[in-house]
Structure formats: C-alpha cells, structure tokens
Specification:
Number of strands: 19
Strand content: 25-35%
Mean pLDDT: 94
Structural class: alpha/beta
Order of helices and strands: EHEEHEHEHEEHEEEEEHEEEEHEEEH
Low-confidence stretches: none
Helix content: 25-40%
Largest sheet: 8 strands, mixed
Strand order of the largest sheet: 5-6-4-14-15-16-13-17
Oligomer: single chain
C-alpha cells in the first residue's frame, strides 16, 4: 500500500512535517538522499527563540510564538531527548557602534511581549563572566533555548515511525511527475514512488526539483562555516549572540559551537582559512577563554535562503497535492514545529490555524507554467 504523503528531505523541516502528519493519523514516507541532518540541519546552532539575532519579519512573528510553544507542548513525545539547554540568549555589543546596532533587537522582543533586559557593560559582564571586559551593552532574551539538532530530527522521525511512518535512505529524487492537479509519481534512483500527497522539504535543493514544473522558486544555498571545539567543563547555558550573525553556544557535551556568517558561493562546501581566521579573531575578542580551547572540527552547511527572506510553505500552483516547505534560511530549527503543524493542517484540514498567505508559492506564480 502506498503512503498517503511522501516527504522529500530528511532535514528538520521534513521530519517535522512527518511528525505532525503522523500525529494526525497520516501514513508518511520520508525519502532522504543521504542521512538525517546531512544538510543545513546538521550545521545549525539549533536555537529556538521567540526572536532571532536579526529582525523577525512581521509575517513570521505568529509562527515564532507558536513554534516556541509547540516545543514545550510536544517535548514529552520526543525520543531521544533533545538535550535542551534553557539559558536564554544574550546579544552582546563589544563597542559603542555595536551597542547601537543591538538596540532594535531589544525593541522587537519587547514588542513581542517578552520581558527582556537591556544591560550596560558592567551589568553584562556580571551577568555573563565569559564575555570580554570591553563589552559595552547586551540584551538578554529569556525566551530562548538550544537543542541538539541531530536529536531533534531523529526524535521527530522516531515519533512518526512509531505511528506507522517509514523512511528510505539513499533515495535521490530525479523527477516529480504531475498531471490533472495531482502527483502521478516521484521518480528516484531507487524506482518510482506514489502517494496521495507530496511534500518537498529539500532545503537548498528544492529549486532543482520544482523548476522542471515551471516554478522557479528563488531559493539559493548560503554556506555557513562552523567551528566545533573540544569539550570543556560547563561554563554557560546561554546562547551568546554577536553582530554579523555570529553566535556561540556550549552543547550538552561541553563543546562550543561557533558560527557563522552567510556566504553565497553556490554549493561549494570548502572550509576557508580566511573565514575561519575571521571567526577566531571575532570570538576570542568577545570570549577570551576561547583562545585557549582547541578546535576539533570544521564543517559547513547550506542554508536555503529565499530572496524575500521568507520561507516557502504551501501548495504548488497548478498541483494542489504538491506542498512546498523550504526556504527557512538560518531558522529551520526555530520554525520547524510551526511549519510541520501548518503542513499537516493544509493536508488534513485544507486550512491552517496561522495565516500562511505570505509564505505561499503563489507569490512567484507569474513565472509558473505548470
């Protein structure tokens, strides 16, 4: 018997869709070309917050609040445990110019109803002793935590498998055949698959799958290089954020995860000395302790970034049974729960609880000829 929904992509968005669909009693099949979290999901800081380190666009704010709540509501269903570290996020400025730059972050969090704190340099250093003495200001957001991204994807998927879902690895999708408002088949290197619905959650590879159908979704890969340090004694539970999208977090195992600028270099996954040198200087300036810590691993992932900085979530124009869930950029983990819930509602109920029009593929419909 073929599955009701085929999900293309085993990243955190695809597995979240599988989880929420399975919670509604839908039989799912996840097709993954490699292994879980092999794309952007495996190279993310995995921060779940009501507000990020940059401005949260207005259409995303309801999803941000909902996703944060959903993690708490569903945490008991997750196996393995996510290694959740609830310490909030501290956005630090290391000079006067940066202090000006982080002020809108404080204003936005306040507007979203979070009781955050604006700290001067002395208060920030007292609050987080890992910071360098030259810290000039900081914003503390208590509505933020971080998780192990590999465990999150595995937990989403395991819950779906317990409900009768399936997963197939080493399956590379080569074509999606559509006709008469339905998906005829999904063509892969392992043969053809058929389902009542198809969800494309293939991250930065999504345009390659949809462009033959006449939908040139403007999602591009953005490389993010990451440094992972040796394990250290527990020093902080907070996510430490800095300007230019730099962030540091200490994992449950004690390693420091350090990342990451965004580079538009196609699918070039090389690690560059220039970028790592820039990171090392920035992080040791802000967190002096890191100058004495060994780096163990360097790696990169490709964030799927859409040209308007909004994700693409919804049915494909011309084929209502083909749903897109991609383009979350640096915030896939943060919005995974709300995206999975919305996709399950679209498929089961035909409508969503949250407004989703701003994310619809229809905004690119003038280029579509399905």
């Amino acid at each position: 018997m073929h599955p009701e929904v085929i999900i293309i992509g085993g990243g955190v968005i695809g597995t979240a869709c599988a989880y929420f669909l399975a919670q509604r009693g839908v039989k799912v099949l996840v097709l993954e070309r490699n292994h879980l979290g092999c794309g952007a999901s495996g190279s993310t800081a995995a921060i779940i917050s009501i507000s990020g380190s940059g401005s949260t666009l207005e259409p995303l704010r309801p999803l941000s609040l909902e996703s944060y709540r959903l993690f708490s509501d569903h945490e008991q269903n997750f196996d393995p445990a996510l290694e959740i570290i609830r310490g909030g996020a501290l956005y630090a400025a290391m000079d006067a110019q940066e202090a000006v730059a982080i002020r809108p972050f404080y204003d936005e969090i306040r507007q979203m109803g979070i009781d955050c704190r604006l700290l001067d340099g002395k208060e920030a250093l007292d609050f987080e002793p890992l910071l360098a003495p030259q810290v000039t200001a900081a914003v503390f957001n208590p509505a933020s935590f971080h998780v192990n991204p590999f465990r999150l994807g595995e937990a989403y998927l395991n819950a779906a498998l317990r409900q009768g879902g399936r997963v197939a690895y080493g399956v590379k999708v080569q074509d999606i055949v559509v006709a008469n408002d339905r998906v005829v088949k999904v063509v892969t290197n392992r043969g053809d698959y058929q389902g009542d619905w198809v969800v494309v959650a293939a991250g930065a590879h999504t345009p390659q799958l949809l462009s033959p159908l006449g939908l040139p979704i403007p999602i591009v890969p953005a490389r993010g290089q990451v440094i992972l340090t040796e394990a250290c004694p527990r020093m902080t539970d907070r996510v430490l954020l800095f300007v230019d999208h730099l962030y540091a977090r200490q994992t449950a195992s004690g390693n420091f995860y350090l990342g990451s600028h965004t580079e538009f270099v196609g699918f070039d996954n090389r690690i560059t000395l220039q970028k790592l040198t820039t990171f090392a200087r920035a992080f040791t300036r802000a967190i002096p302790l890191l100058a004495r810590v060994r780096a163990l691993r360097f790696f990169a992932g490709f964030r799927p970034i859409c040209e308007d900085n909004l994700p693409v979530i919804g049915p494909l124009p011309g084929c209502s049974k083909l749903v897109v869930a991609s383009g979350h950029g640096r915030t896939g983990v943060r919005f995974s729960a709300s995206t999975g819930k919305a996709v399950s509602e679209l498929i089961v109920d035909g409508q969503t609880e949250q407004p989703m029009e701003a994310f619809s593929p229809r905004r690119f419909a003038e280029n579509v000829a399905v």
